[in-house]
Every structure is written in structure tokens, then in C-alpha cells.
TrEMBL record:
NAD(+) binds at residues 10-15, 99-101, 125-128. This is 4-hydroxy-tetrahydrodipicolinate reductase. Homotetramer. Its EC number is 1.17.1.8. It is found in: Cytoplasm. Catalyzes the conversion of 4-hydroxy-tetrahydrodipicolinate (HTPA) to tetrahydrodipicolinate. The gene is dapB. It comes from Planifilum fimeticola. It holds the Pfam family DapB_C. It is an enzyme of class 1 (oxidoreductase). Residues 4-128 form the Dihydrodipicolinate reductase N-terminal domain. Belongs to the DapB family. (S)-2,3,4,5-tetrahydrodipicolinate binds at residues 156, 165-166. GO terms for biological process: diaminopimelate biosynthetic process; lysine biosynthetic process via diaminopimelate. Pathway: Amino-acid biosynthesis; L-lysine biosynthesis via DAP pathway; (S)-tetrahydrodipicolinate from L-aspartate: step 4/4.
Amino acid sequence: MKPIRVAVAGANGRMGREVVKMLVQDETFEFVRGISRTQGGKDVGESIGLGSLGVTFSDSLESALLENRPDVLVDFTIPAAVKRHAEIALEMGVRPVVGTTGLAEGEIAELARLSEERRVGAVIAPNFAIGAVLMMMFAARAAKYFPHVEIIEMHHDRKLDAPSGTSLKTAEMIARNRPEIRQGHPEEKETLEGARGGYRHGFRIHSIRLPGMVAHQEVIFGGPGQTLTLRHDSIHRESFMPGVKLAIQKVMNLDRLVYGLEHLLEE
Ligand code: NAP
């Protein structure tokens, strides 16, 4: 089997470096190019502490895709850049696997349309950690019996978007199973703005940003006389790599966009 050719946008970032490390250790993949606005021309391996890889950074996504013809583009960049990156990839017949969070619902829908139009597969997953995906699936199941719920998500303080993509995706999955109810006291008043967190799908999401954290989430359900807490912790970025690997393999056989790793897991 020919290895899957993969380029990585944001290869010099925290997640991008982890992806490059995973790709070069796995012979089913060929890491063909890193994209970085700041490291153009440098050897990727030397820049990220892996020793020379003979693969350089490109400072232009278009040129990298034209010159290296990857099968897949993995993107871990920033919310402001990711949509354009995915569009460029789809237009050039390269399958995007997107980990960058912060895409709006409408933007995901536009990418889904483009992917379908071009018949080029794509995966967008706000969380590639299998444990986190299971936590989301369990939360969706619990919501049927425990409609009173709040989410607390905790991340490192370099994260740009709040609330996290994972919490929004969890809220969406819960909402599909949760009976419509009015939650909390009808006369509740916030005396400190933001104290009750953000409101989505009829319940609250709270975001914590602190150094020392990676990516953590608690989904707390409450019912008469009991609470149920589901918690997932990513304590190292390697936790995301089995999911990224699975998405790269699965996207090769897709001809549309899949949003959420849960759709790629075997039952
Ligand atoms: P990071 O360390 O800041 O890396 C982001 C990289 O994006 C930077 O190295 C930067 O590289 C590049 N970049 C910045 N601005 C850019 C622009 N305007 N155009 C193109 N590239 C740009 O961030 P991170 O911690 O790796 O996180 C990256 C993204 O992944 C975030 O959205 C985060 O929420 C998400 N994330 C997702 C998962 C998941 O499982 N889906 C897990 C963890 C994190 P250059 O300066 O070299 O260009």
C-alpha cells in the first residue's frame, strides 16, 4: 500500500508539531510539507527538534499543495485562517482534516457544501481525543434521562476561542436527546456579568483558561437527589494523535464532509 501523503498547516505550533512527530513515526504516512508563515525554507525536523527530515516549511499553502500534491491537509492553525485553508484544499482536490476550533456553524455548512460539490472528503473534529469523544457520546445518552445539565470546559490560557469547540459540539449532541425544559430559576438574575456562563441550546457552558491545563471538560447532570458527572482530561497533546491518524485514514474513502470523530468510530 502506498503511504498517504500528508501536509500539515500550523506544523510549527503545539498541535502541528505533535502531528508531524506522529506522521514520521508511522510508515503508512508520508509527511510531505509543513506550512508556516514564519519558518519558510527551514527543515521542519530541525525547527521542531526531531533532527533533519529533509522536508521544508512552505510559507504559502497554495504553493505547498501545488508542489507536493498531498492526499490530505491536516490543519491546526487559528480560527481566522482555517476556513480559507480548507476551501483552498478542497478546491485543489486535497482532503482537509481540520482540528482547528472556532469555525462557526455557517462556515462548517459552507465547507460541507463545497466538499460535496467537489466530491472531496473532509473531516472537521473539535476534539480528536477518543476519550473526549466517548464522553460526548455518553453525555448525549445521559441527557435523555437527566435534562438538567451544565458544561464546564477548562483549557490552557493560550487558547483563542471560548467556549471550546468540544463544549459546543457536546451541547449540540446533548440537545438532540434532551427534552425541552426550562432550566434554573425563572427569576434568576446575574449580579456579575458572565457569572452564569454562556447560554446554548437551553443550558449553560462555562469556560476556564489557566496555565498548567491542556484540555479538560466536565458535563454535570442534576436530578432529584443525585448528580452525574462525566469528565475527560487530555493531559498531553499525544492524546489527540490516534484520532488524527484515524481521520487521515478514513478521509481517504469519503466524498463528503464529516463533522465530529464520533461518526468515524466503529460501534
Ligand atoms: P498554536 O501552538 O498557537 O499553533 C497554531 C499555529 O497556527 C501557529 O504555530 C502559527 O504558525 C499558525 N498560525 C497562526 N496564525 C496564522 C494565520 N493567520 N494563518 C496561518 N497560520 C497561522 O496552537 P495549538 O495549541 O497548536 O492549537 C491550534 C488549534 O487546534 C486551535 O484552534 C486549538 O483550539 C485546536 N485544537 C484542537 C484539538 C482537537 O482535538 N481538534 C486539540 C487541541 C487543539 P506560524 O506562525 O508558524 O505560521
